[in-house]
Amino acid sequence: MTQGPALNPADPEGAIAAAAKSYSNWGRWGDDDRLGTLNFLDAAKRREGAALVRRGVSFSLAQSFDMDGPQKGWRRRTNPVHTMLDTGTDAALGNQGFPHGIGGADDVIAMPLQCSTQWDGLGHIFDHGFAWNGRRADKVVTSDGDLVTGIEHMAPHVAGRGVLLDVGRVVGEDGELPDGFAVTEEHLTATARAHGVTVGRGDIVVVRTGQLARVRRTGWGDYAGGPAPGLSFTTAGWLHRTEIAAIATDTWGFEVRPNEFEHAFQPLHQIAIPNMGLLIGEMWDLDALAEDCAADGQYAFWLTAAPLPITGAVGSPINPVAVK
């Protein structure tokens, strides 16, 4: 397979400007829109997704939230710190102060909202100082949080028809793509064809590259921020044209790393989030689901992946659940 249309590695500015103009959804759902492409996920699409539940088997698509995660401190992103406030030891010693023998345990967690399986909110990325729907970034996200497109607005909506595209299994060797592999539109459509599944308006698409399976064998290494397989910048047209509601991958950054341009940082994010309004998920664990899909030949399923309604947040940890 080819790697798609050629890009000029020396001209990220030109490519980003052209894609932003071609694939913008600004104003599509009105000036006050807070949901972006989640507008494609309507009641009919949810009914379609719910009808896919036949066996009742379910899969969590979340990585663990603990100190053994991949984060290394970049941009102050750390792994979760879990601390017990009350324990069984306290209860056994009778020092909790409760009557008639009752005891309990309590705990607290401190973590960046995007340190493990998560959604990128619409206030997460800007393009030349502008946020989703053409709003000025400084008027959207301040020290008080995302005042306009806080991820809490998405909390009721992220449930519907999920589709797995196991590109690692279809295109890669031994079910995995190598780091730096750019997944093109051709790879995505060939994978859908191999799976016998369609991708279209309102779908929540999950793309498995196999990178997470590899680092589980070899160690985290540079999983967080280092080289990775991922979507090519050239898939922006496919992401826009298919009218999917959301997309997620098993990698740290969704798009191929190193990026396809010189002196660029996450250029596909720069198109997809502030210009397209696309909901992007990262660090999803798709391996068990992929094994089941390969076994029964069914690559579409009911998927629910609501963000925590954290007021003003620009991202959220999630526990996506696929049901077949």
UniProtKB/TrEMBL annotation:
Superkingdom of this protein's organism: Bacteria
One of the record's GO molecular function terms: arylformamidase activity
Naturally occurring in which organism (per UniProt): Streptomyces mangrovisoli
Name of the protein in its database record: Cyclase
Gene3D superfamilies assigned to the protein according to its UniProt record, in alphabetical order: Putative cyclase
GO biological process entries: L-tryptophan catabolic process to kynurenine
